[in-house]
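FAQ
Q: What does a multi-component entry look like?
A: The components come first, one per line:
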Amino acid sequence: MSPTPLEDQVHDALHRTADPVQRAPFTVTDVRTRARRIQRRRAAVAGAAVAAVLAVAIPVGAGMVGPSPRSDVPPATEPPAPRITGTVRIDPRTAPVGGELAVPLINVDDQTLTIGGETIDLPRRYDQLTPYADGWVGITFVDPQDEGATGVEVLGPDFEVRDAVAPSSHLAVSADGSRLAWAEHDGRRWTVVARDRDGAREERRTPLPPGPQDARVRPVGFLPGDAVLVGTTDPVTGRESALVVGPDGTTSPLPDSLVVGSSSEVTGLVSVQTRFTGDGSCWQVRDAGAGGAEVWRTCDYSLLGFSPDGRYVLGFIDYLTPDGSPTLAVLDAATGERSLDFELVGARTGVVGINQEVAWEDDDTLVATLVTGDRQYVVRLGLDGTVERVGGDAVDVQPGDRALMFAAPSVLQR
Amino acid sequence: MDATLVDMGAHDRQSDKDADFSAYMSARQTALYRTAYLLAGDHAGAEDLLQVAFAKLYLAWDRIRDREALDGYVRRIMVNENNSLWRRAWKRREHSTDTMPETGAVDTYDEGTGGALWSFVQTLPPKQRSVVVLRYYEQLSEAEIADVLGISVGTVKSQASRALAALRARAPHSLNPHESGDDAR
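Then the predicted structure of the entire assembly, as tokens:
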């Protein structure tokens, strides 16, 4: 990267812009105050949960790792999973080791895929992989050294490339893995492509109106009736709007969002971010089947990841950064009522985080990667309050980095 | 009595921490503010970025052994915060206006080219802009930028290349390589 006149001019322009700036606006007191706000925010969700539980006189075992004591209230006829109340603390260092992961896991650093307890070397770097036909569909980087542009590859059982299209979005994969969707740009327009995993049906292609590549389109998830929820980005404002792509090729916009979160293929509910307040965000759950009508709203959580049965949605911290979320709430998807809280040990004092790209293994179990200190772990979280460490040994990571990620997470914000 | 001694010890440690942190802030705040300003593009955003970064640094202070790495830690937090999806959405929404972003000092000796370039830098996607600021303002190496951003060196190169291409495409004719002599190199 030898300097060119333009590089010199950029260097000069930045220095002429910044060098005259002589500001030191903060005192240590200001910073301590902000630090306390961050600590309070990290603790707020868990603290509120504890308060709520105490208010109904159910004891909570604060400080314990694993499930808090179960409620004495007998279970109702309709299984009220999650069946415990209170806050479950996650300490991956002491959590019992659980059974093998039910979902594939990519190690970016080692360029490996772990599935069913077996670790496979990948021939090239993949950002996403999901089983398809007798092989895989993968998302790779168009230039292996460039994480900016991605393409989709249809792969054989040994990862030999059978078909490739670029540029493309990432993949959306249905909860049972039977359906997958992506969007590809042909230089003129984005087209949403949906396929069955077993290849039984012909792929469904829905071309969208002509638009540039940076008017980004990405499938977010599936909806009832084989519809696909798609996020479309306005390249001028950066706002992402929701669009329902029907199986017959019809498209129905769900307006007024900043970011499209997740969808439930059972209930037709979707989550969208509607506001950013500067140090937090507001979200709504809307009913795609009712034209996007609001069901409930919150400014306490970032709403991402409906359970496969649609009963629950996950609430991450409202100010979500690449560090992840120190807490994870399990909320009733229909009402927003909090059912269960997980809190990462150390969340009140240190920078620790649960990555929001979680994967549901079944209706009552999810797996998540999390970073605490300089180690990244994989944990299995049960809605009955169980916490297990899974996915093999923890790996070393630099601050802000991650090496482990699920190959086809239930939540994807890429 | 023991409890009092323990309390005093904790108090001393807190005082030491605050004194160390205060010394670091005093020495580095102005310089890091400039980086925050280039990343955020306006003073309100810069103040917020830097305050969050200092606050997170304060929380992690006792766990950071390598004091030489403090600037890098602050830069990493600022870049991550600035690139965070939620913040980007907010900034886009708040700033979706026809008016140009804040400009820095008015260039008199280069007929405003520097000011124009700064305006164009502000239109770059967050990651490209981060690379440009770290490379051409902080003058970090590609490896150092890769470390700060948590990406590969190859991605740093490609992001820088894209950013320069975008700047060439948008910048005034005087920056066109055919007119500025790039081709002659």
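Q: Is there any commentary attached?
A: Sometimes. For this entry: The first strand of chain A starts at residue 87 and ends at 90.
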